[in-house]
Amino acid sequence: MGRHYGTPVVGETADWGLNDPYRTAVAKAHIFEAIESAATQEAVQEGSYGGGAGMTCHQFTGGTGTASRITGGEGKDYTVGVLIQSNYGHLPDLQIGGVPIGKLLAKEKKVPPPEGSKRGDGSIVIVIFTDAPLLPHQLCRLAQRASIGLAQVGGHGVGRNHSGDIFLAVSTGNKPDEHLTGPNPDHRQPLIETNTMEMVRNESVDALFRAASEATEEAILNSLVGAREGRTGYRGVRADGLPVERVAELLKEHLVVI
């Protein structure tokens, strides 16, 4: 982000299972409607809204999910927020609270084992935001913790060879003044100036790591819950939503409190 402009970073998860990839379905009116809604809505719409439309997660409808955690610091608290777009995974790999929910549901529905394919591996985009003052090398470490939260839901089925997994971490903790204040002799090379940067001590960063992992796990589950109504897509292809009530019953049977 520069002083006068921002450079957008764009990621994608393919929705070609439910959408016609050769047709442009988004019109100008949809774009302006989305901008106007974003300026007034109080919460992020989770599930199959916006970029989340057409996404599937563990063979249920998925999409956009969010979650956050607050961690204590010296004299102030810090927030770790996660925004994800889920479009990955097979049913047998789904686990919630350590319970193999996917296998239990597959057994009940008599779902055949998935066939391996590039298309079936899917993808997920996970963006972690924090106001803790982290430097670039620390943000790289924070982004890596997204894989832990992802594995809490996807088990051993994540990180496949053809998976399109993208993890990013951003900190707003340091906002130095980029304008030079010293003289610029003859409009040549300016005098060297410095910025004072704050950073989290490495020995105390574990709380942020855990927050990122937990919030990632919850955001993925929220994407599933938000899309629980299911969706009918291109040529009548149907993707069912997560059976939330049945999942709650299974978790209760396994003594998992939600």
Give the gist of this structure.
The protein is α+β, with helices and mostly antiparallel strands and 258 residues long. It has helices spanning 28-40, 101-109, 118-121, 136-144, 146-154, 206-226, 244-253, and strands at residues 56-57, 60-61, 63-72, 77-88, 122-130, 164-171, 231-232, 238-239.
Descriptive notes:
There is one protein chain. This protein has 258 residues and is an alpha+beta fold. It is built from seven helices and eight strands. Helix 5 (146-154) crosses helix 6 (206-226).
Q: Structural class per helix/strand content?
A: alpha+beta
Order of helices and strands: HEEEEHHEHHEHEEH
> How would a crystallographer describe the biggest sheet?
4 strands, mixed
CA-atom Rg in angstroms: 21 Å
Average predicted local confidence, pLDDT: 89
Distance between the termini: 40 Å
**Count of beta strands:** 8
Question: Helical percent range?
Answer: 25-40%
- Spans of at least 5 consecutive residues with low confidence: none
Secondary structure tally, helices: 7
- Going across the major beta sheet, what is the strand order? 3-4-5-6
Overall body shape: globular
Main attributes of the structure:
four-stranded mixed sheet, 258 residues, 8 strands
List strands and helices in order, with pairings.
Elements: H1 28-40, E1 56-57, E2 60-61, E3 63-72, E4 77-88, H2 101-109, H3 118-121, E5 122-130, H4 136-144, H5 146-154, E6 164-171, H6 206-226, E7 231-232, E8 238-239, H7 244-253
Parallel strand pairs: 5-6
Antiparallel strand pairs: 1-2, 3-4, 4-5, 7-8
Helix pairs in contact: 5-6
